[in-house]
Specification:
Layout: E1 3-5, E2 10-13, H1 18-35, H2 40-43, E3 58-63, E4 66-74, E5 81-88, H3 97-111, E6 116-122, H4 128-134, E7 138-148, E8 163-167, H5 173-184, H6 188-198, E9 204-211, E10 214-224, E11 227-235, H7 244-258, E12 263-269, H8 273-281, E13 284-296, H9 303-309
Parallel strand pairs: 5-6, 11-12
Antiparallel strand pairs: 1-2, 2-3, 3-4, 4-5, 6-13, 7-12, 7-13, 8-9, 9-10, 10-11
Helix pairs in contact: 5-6
The protein binds coenzyme A.
Coenzyme A is lined by residues 31, 35, 86-88, 93-99, 119, 121-122, 125-128, 130-132, 134.
């Protein structure tokens, strides 16, 4: 376990122990009772213990042996971009703990070569927007969190051109990266790196969707504690708008429901009208919204550059 403790009671952890995950859960439920909204989806609590090690460590803040602050770091896409979700014990807010943790996060990001740091700010949060502003962020985008309402899942449909989902392996990474890159207009190489990293997480399953034997889409599920997230959902750019995504989403949602997931969650950018209406048609309902506030980090010059510039 790679972690260090300094005199201020701050722990930096590359991967959390079971005990630390329990402490995060305890802090998150305390905050949930106080704030009246859930941080579980935003923190991705279920995957904290199993995440593949990223380049940035989580920050754990202790006082008298109790975890009173947590900055959870997640990287879902490009390796140079991370998300930070910061939480401070309700009785200890506005005492500089959040700011101090954010500064550690920035320092760690710069050490890890991260260029884009996104602060995860629930729209329900009373303090989040003001806090992010003082960190000098710019609004990047907003996402809805949508939960599946099982009573709204459409009845089974027969189709003349069925889409099949099969669990993907390492050999499928190049084609999957090409699909995801085409769908999001992102560089293929970054998607390849992200897929390789995310597929190491044992809570995630990646599926390749095929139609007539041809690869057409990618979708992942991450399951823990009875909660399932549907992520990394993409249909080849030239095959969108033909009902492939609908078949993929319904297939994975039914599979997750049959295997006992009590909550099935998906997130979507608030201005992605097409995806939003697809998710609603499949039975998902918006339960919250999150702002992503961006801090662009200058590259830290390397030692030779510093010497050269003198
Ligand atoms: C947001 C949060 C992490 C801030 O932690 P904190 O330890 O209370 O924040 P700090 O004391 O370090 O505040 C730093 C600055 O943020 C701003 N800020 C913090 N709380 C604020 C509030 N309630 N209203 C307006 N501005 C606020 C202030 O500018 C503050 O500086 P100041 O006290 O010198 O004016 C904490 O309130 C929290 O856990 N909220 C619930 C979860 C959440 O919204 N997370 C999103 C984090 S991006």
């Amino acid at each position: 376990m790679a972690f260090t403790i300094d005199a201020n009671g701050v722990t930096l952890a590359a991967r959390l122990s079971s005990q630390q995950v329990e402490q995060v859960r305890a802090l998150a439920s305390l905050c949930e009772v106080h704030d009246s909204y859930s941080m579980a989806a935003r923190l991705d609590v279920g995957t904290l213990e199993t995440r593949p090690e990223g380049s940035v460590k989580d920050v754990l803040w202790y006082q008298s042996g109790e975890m009173v602050g947590f900055a959870g770091m997640n990287s879902y896409g490009a390796p140079s971009e991370v998300e930070a979700t910061i939480l401070v014990h309700p009785d200890l807010r506005r005492r500089g703990i959040g700011r101090a943790m954010a500064h550690i996060v920035v320092r760690e990001c710069q050490r890890g070569g991260i260029r884009r740091l996104l602060f995860v700010v629930p729209q329900e949060s009373r303090e989040g927007a003001g806090f992010a502003r003082t960190m000098g962020t710019q609004h990047s985008h907003s996402e809805y969190t949508m939960d599946l309402d099982v009573t709204r899942i459409p009845p089974f449909e027969t189709t003349h051109n069925p889409v099949e989902l099969r669990p993907a392996g390492a050999e499928d990474v190049p084609i999957m990266a090409a699909i995801v890159a085409s769908a999001f207009a992102e560089p293929v190489q970054e998607e390849e790196q992200a897929l390789v990293r995310l597929m190491k997480d044992i809570t995630r399953t990646t599926y390749l969707a095929t139609q007539d034997g041809r690869p057409v889409g990618v979708i992942q599920s991450a399951v823990s504690d009875g909660r399932a997230f549907i992520i990394h959902f993409a249909v080849r750019a030239d095959m969108q708008g033909q009902g492939i995504g609908r078949q993929m989403l319904l297939a994975i949602a039914r599979g997750l429901q049959n295997s006992g997931s009590r909550w099935i969650t998906i997130e979507v950018e608030t201005d992605n009208r097409n995806a939003l209406s697809l998710y609603e048609q499949c039975g998902f309902v918006a339960v919250g919204a999150t702002d992503y506030e961006l801090l662009e980090l200058p590259r830290v010059p390397t030692a030779p550059e510093l010497l050269f510039d003198r």
